[in-house]
Specification:
It comes from Clostridium oryzae. This is N-acetyltransferase domain-containing protein. By secondary structure, this protein is an alpha+beta fold. The protein has a single domain, classed as Gcn5-related N-acetyltransferase (GNAT) (Aminopeptidase, 3-Layer(aba) Sandwich), CATH 3.40.630.
Length: about 160
C-alpha cells in the first residue's frame, strides 16, 4: 500500500499570510501573473536549483500555454492531495512574487521536499529569505511532516534535519 502524502483527515492549510505577502493554492486563473513572474526570473530560478535534475526549467521559449498546462497539473495534484503548490502574491493579489512547491520525497526518511523561488527582484530586498523562513515556521506549525528538506535552499540538504 502506497503511503499517502498527508493523512485523509488532515485539513490542507488554505493560505499563509504575512505583512508582505499571501500564499494560496496556485490555480489556472493565475497563469498571466505566474507566467510573467517565471519568465522574468528564469535565471534566478535555474541558478537556485542548478544541482537538481530539472535545471532547465523554465525554458527560454516557454509559452503561456505551456505554463497553463503546468498550472493545471499543479492544481489537479493539489486537489488530489498528491502535492501542494502555492502561489506567493502581493496582499492585493496584483502581482505574483513567487511559488512554493511541496512534494512527497522519494527518500523514505523524509516526509516532504519543499522548493520555492521568489522573483529575481525579491532576492535583493530579502523577500525570498522571508518566504523561506515563513514557510519553515508554517510547515512546522501547521503541517503533519516530521522531516522536511529544502533542496537548493539549505546547504547540504542531503544531511536531513528535523525542522
Amino acid at each position: 500500500m502506497e503511503k499517502k502524502f498527508v493523512p485523509d483527515e488532515f485539513i490542507i492549510p488554505e493560505k499563509l499570510e504575512t505583512e508582505k505577502f499571501r500564499m494560496r493554492m496556485l490555480t489556472v486563473n493565475d497563469v498571466e501573473k505566474d507566467y510573467e513572474a517565471v519568465m522574468s526570473s528564469r535565471e534566478h530560478i535555474r541558478s537556485t536549483y542548478d544541482d537538481e535534475d530539472d535545471d532547465t526549467w523554465p525554458e527560454e521559449n516557454m509559452t503561456i500555454e505551456e505554463d497553463l498546462e503546468d498550472l493545471r497539473r499543479h492544481q489537479e495534484e493539489f486537489l488530489k492531495r498528491e502535492a501542494f503548490v502555492y502561489t506567493v502574491v502581493t496582499l492585493d493579489e496584483s502581482k505574483c512574487l513567487g511559488c512554493v512547491y511541496m512534494y512527497p520525497s522519494e527518500k523514505k526518511e523524509i516526509d516532504a521536499e519543499i522548493y520555492l523561488w521568489a522573483r529575481a527582484s525579491g532576492v535583493e530586498n530579502g523577500l525570498e529569505k522571508l518566504i523561506f523562513e515563513s514557510v519553515k515556521k508554517w510547515v512546522k506549525k501547521e503541517w503533519p511532516f516530521k522531516k522536511v528538506a529544502f533542496p537548493g535552499l539549505e546547504p547540504k540538504w542531503d544531511e536531513w534535519k528535523r525542522i
